Amino acid sequence: MKAIVIGAGLGGLLSAASLSEAGYQVEVFERLPITGGRFTNLNYRGFQLSSGAFHILPHGPSGPLAQLLREVGAEVEIIRSDTTTVRVPLKKGISDYGKGFKDIPFSDFPTLLSHKDRLKIALLVVSTRKNRPTGSTLQAWIKTQIKDEWLVRFADAFCGWALSLKSDEVTVEEIFEIIENMYRFGGPGIPIGGCKGIIDALECVIASNGGKIYTKTEVSKILVENGKAAGVLAGNEIYKANLIISNLGHVATARLCEEALSEEKDSGYLRKLETLKPSAGIKICLAADEPLVGHSGILLTPYAKRVNGIDEVTQVDPSLAPPGKHLTMSHQHVAPENIKNLESEIELGLQDLKEIFPDKKYEVLLIQSYHDGWPVNRAASGTDPGNETPIPELYVVGDGAKGEGGIEVEGVALGVAATMKKILG
């Protein structure tokens, strides 16, 4: 059995490694000169900057990605982060960073709520573990059930960091799935070697099983014969296969087999693709001689104008920066109406960092934006069409097909695992 994987990003390489371990003859085609896509390292002045992700796994060594890496035999050391904190005002009602803030553990964020609201949240969480709320966004649910502005700010910071969305763009059902996964798998962790440490390990698995990866080779068409995916056209050559996995997202994949999809009697799939909205974000990479965050987890920033969260991965893996230096990265959600004003959004993020670290010295290394054809997620969390397509033997993996409750790369792993279960049983 032969499988072709289109795209050598994390989802594509996870799929290729899984299929090669199962005995498939695997070929991977990547249009870029490097592998990893938005999940690899960019070496700049000795700093291992990431091409997209943050050198951090949301659920650490026990999450879906770590589990899948172990299953395929990819050797990656993942260190659990020591804590995650939230920057909150010293006094309730303060919204200006200059008037005094402190960092509290993530688990202590309810302390900013009244005793009555804390009790109400506890009862809501218990009652909704089996009977999930439906038909509402997270923000609308909070305003209806709790009616506290602090909780909305916290929800916006969390959703902005984890999903590149605001709390009024995420369904409450999706958030409860995410919370369930947080209880199930635990908090974040850092892979030694950063994103590229994982990519290199997956490439070793694929190579050891006889698989091949072709870079600078773009797939221009998916071949469909007798109603099934049968191969690809890449670099003016035809490659046949029994199975096609695309890491390009549903929309780009559909373009590669547009003629075959147009013949489908059920156009519901294509209509669904028209509604998909990618999520956008901005990442700012900082260099400093001293720690800025001071721990290896995530610092959430609910009171910033734009920045949602910050991490400092050199607390665990100093090799991601030159000796004596720290690498700190911030992330901010970009609303669809602000994509045309990225320079203004970046300036607001830079101003946030000055206010978050008022007494710290740092250098801005790199500013990256993710939108349009190179987004944070090709489909907003909770809205993707799943991993199957109307064409048999053609599947989609990656950030546009993550499944329920999947944060960032953990969602990519969940989608790949679901796809492998369908294929391999």
Give the tags.
425 residues, alpha/beta, FAD/NAD(P)-binding domain, Polyamine Oxidase, Chain A, domain 2, 2 domains, 7-stranded mixed beta sheet, 12 helices
What would you note in describing this structure?
- The longest helix has 17 residues, at 408-424.
- The radius of gyration is 22 Å and the shape is globular.
- Helix 1 runs parallel beside helix 7 (194-208) and helix 1 packs parallel to helix 12.
- With 425 residues, the chain is of the alpha/beta class.
- 51% of the residues are buried.
- It contains twelve helices and 19 strands.
- The mean pLDDT is 92.
- It folds into two domains: 2-80 and 193-275 and 383-424, 3-Layer(bba) Sandwich (FAD/NAD(P)-binding domain); 85-186 and 279-376, Alpha-Beta Complex (Polyamine Oxidase, Chain A, domain 2).
- The strands form five sheets. A seven-stranded mixed sheet has the order 7-6-15-16-17-14-18. Strands 9-2-1-13-19 form a five-stranded parallel sheet, covered by helices on one side. Strands 10-11-12 form a three-stranded antiparallel sheet, covered by helices on one side.
- Strand 1 (2-6), helix 1 (10-21) and strand 2 (25-29) form a beta-alpha-beta unit.
- The chain starts with a strand and ends with a helix.
